[in-house]
């Protein structure tokens, strides 16, 4: 499902309040594999997790990037339909399906979260289906600035200082797999944005948005 530190995010879930079990994970550990039994529902209590599917030829499509408060692993059959892998240190809460089915309170919480997360799924479908490579990369960067880029965004408080440092928890290849691009295209777009002065690359896992509004203008939302 969607990522909560971005526009349209779900309100933080509270599986802890329902007696959920919890597990700690290090970066790049698998929470579950595609084909595993779908007998539990999961919540990201802390950290970042990606969901991906492997195509028969070995290509990977990252279908969602999950952050704190997001719910995932909701069954559509007896087996998980994708693989969940952590991108950072993470804590994951888990509820058995029997707990969910027997609790109207949990079901209401799930509904509230999932309705909000659907907006992110719709946005990602538009991104994959209609946006250019530059628009896709710009949209990805803006999702890392959760208080900007939405319809309600009033712009920067100080236009002379409209910068933001963002932390990337994904490799260039993972970003490419999420955006439906090749790693070469992602690298080319990032280099072009650097050349234009829109962003600066501080480290491989950090990017500075030199002017957030300029990045937002490249997302195709305007």
TrEMBL record:
Entry superkingdom: Bacteria
Domain Cyclic nucleotide-binding as annotated: residue spans: 25-73
A cellular component annotation (GO) from this entry: cytosol
SMART domains from the UniProt entry: cNMP, HTH_CRP
Keyword Transcription regulation set for record: yes
Keywords from the UniProt entry: DNA-binding, Transcription, Transcription regulation
Membrane spanning residue stretches: none
GO MF: DNA binding; DNA-binding transcription factor activity
PROSITE patterns registered for this protein in UniProt: CNMP_BINDING_3 (PS50042), HTH_CRP_1 (PS00042), HTH_CRP_2 (PS51063)
Keyword Transcription regulation (UniProt): yes
Residue span, HTH crp-type domain: 131-213
Pfam families registered for this protein in UniProt: cNMP_binding, HTH_Crp_2
Name this protein carries in UniProt: Helix-turn-helix domain-containing protein
Species this chain originates from: Pannonibacter tanglangensis
């Amino acid at each position: 499902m969607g990522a909560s530190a971005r526009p349209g995010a779900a309100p933080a879930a509270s599986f802890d309040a329902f007696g959920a079990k919890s597990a700690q994970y290090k970066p790049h550990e698998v929470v579950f594999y595609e084909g595993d039994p779908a007998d539990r529902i999961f919540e990201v209590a802390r950290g970042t997790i990606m969901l991906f599917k492997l195509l028969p030829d070995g290509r990977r499509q990252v279908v969602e990037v999950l952050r704190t408060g997001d719910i995932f692993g909701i069954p559509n059959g007896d087996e998980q339909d994708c693989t969940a892998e952590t991108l950072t240190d993470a804590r994951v809460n888990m509820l058995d399906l029997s707990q969910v089915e027997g609790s109207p309170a949990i079901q209401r919480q799930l509904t509230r979260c999932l309705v909000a997360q659907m907006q992110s799924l719709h946005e990602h479908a538009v991104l994959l289906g209609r946006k250019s490579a530059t628009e896709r990369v710009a949209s990805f960067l803006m999702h890392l600035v959760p208080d900007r880029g939405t319809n309600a965004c009033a712009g920067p408080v100080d236009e002379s200082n409209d910068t933001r440092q963002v932390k990337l928890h994904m490799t260039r290849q993972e970003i490419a797999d999420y955006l439906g691009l090749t790693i070469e295209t992602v690298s080319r777009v990032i280099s072009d944005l650097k050349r234009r002065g829109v962003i600066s690359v501080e480290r491989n896992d950090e990017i500075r948005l030199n002017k957030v509004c300029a990045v937002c203008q490249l997302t195709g939302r305007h």
